Amino acid sequence: MKTEGSPEQLEMAFERDSRLASRLREGRFQILIEINSPPLAQPFDSALALGATMASRLAREDDVAAIAVTDRLRAEECHDPVKTAGVLMEASGKPILLHISGKGTDDERARQLLASARSRGIRSILALTGDRSDLHPLRKGIAGPGHYEAGYFESLDILRLAAGRQDGFFHAGAGVNPFKYNPADQYLQYGKMVRKIASGAEFIVTHAGWDMKKLQELQWFLAMRQISHPVIARVLLLSMEDIRTLEHMVFPGVYVPREFTAVLQRESDISATQSLAAQLPRIGLQAAGCRLLGYSGVQVAGIRDPQTLEMVLTRIRESLATYTSYDHWLDSWQEYHGDLSFAPVPNAYYVFRGLLASGSPFPDAASVRLTGRDLPRASGLDRLRGYLLPHLLSDRVPGFLSNVYRAVFRGGDGTSGERLRQCFYLDHRRCPKRLVYGACGGSTPEGLCEFGQRPCFFHRVIALASARHALDRLEEPVAHE
Ligand code: SF4
User: Fold this and answer.
1) Over the Cα atoms of the chain, what is R_g?
2) Which CATH number covers residue 140?
């Protein structure tokens, strides 16, 4: 009898589940369907029943490349994503793209998820830091968010564990949020994406959003940096409940401009059927646009039942068949939305001029220009700290002096030298998630932290990096195990 994870079984699983990697390498446009790991508050079997039915329908859909299984998406207390993946894989016969969230995760949980994914033959994983945990205590006023003991394990650490294995078992991907509307956030996102690729990410999945200019901007950025990794765009179908409770944001980092919110709410005021009917052409157009912009596929999130799944797939197929030229697609996208702007703030920042113009979906060096890089300026105190701390912490300085910074700069103690170095000697505990390798995707369009009170901590980091002409340090790879 073979035990779970025996060499024979692993070999078979390795073969079976390399299909997503192969399909992405082939360059064909892929459709992935996202299904959530259910919340722990609900019994596993009943909570996953609709998901399992959708998975069994997907068994006959050849153009669906994989099922993406989320981890701790809406709430931290969710069922084991590998167990969820096992059920969906069994029902569909499809490869799984397993999300691994760093929310409330430590090194042990990440290793354990990777080990159990491996024992089930799941090769494709998506490393994510995760948005704010619903278990993270929030304090009112200027005190800011409380400390969250369980913490956030960084996507780069998950990649380090997955990509660091020398046998090449895992096909690891990472996320990027191109929907950022100020220079600091945008460069932080793109710099961190480059760092993830340098650290072993083999493909990229975007946050969800509707601003096609931003999706084109990401492709142009990749072309400018000569990066040809496959990129999958996450597109989102909103439920009636999501739409009713919309203000600016569906999830952290997923922004819905006020004007677009009004359109969605008008559509949903009539009925759920009308809301779906209005969203389907948009999702179809987005998928077709993504293909023409150079994306390797779309990952469709928010589908909750088999009937909707059927309708979404039909619409995406129709749109892919209809829109085979960029200009035709662009005309239809603009006609469908009229003057609607998808930028959530006035004077929204885009890295390039000339996005979503007719002619070509790809950058033309003669006509495309970078817009100004108005990165924030580092404060005098941060510059002083960044100058003094490396000296105070060096071996050449007597021990008592190396403690001086504690008296001068609050919060220096307790952080390792490497963490301080990564953050240009700023205290990473100013980030509520205590990240060191770069910003999460959750900041607001104005650049405020996902936790709401202050500018994202990494604005200070990029300001120092910029002042020292060392922006490339934010793209350095993280060493593997
Ligand atoms: S400070 Fe920045 S990176 Fe940290 S949680 Fe807030 S938005 Fe995310």
Assistant:
1) 23
2) 3.20.20.220
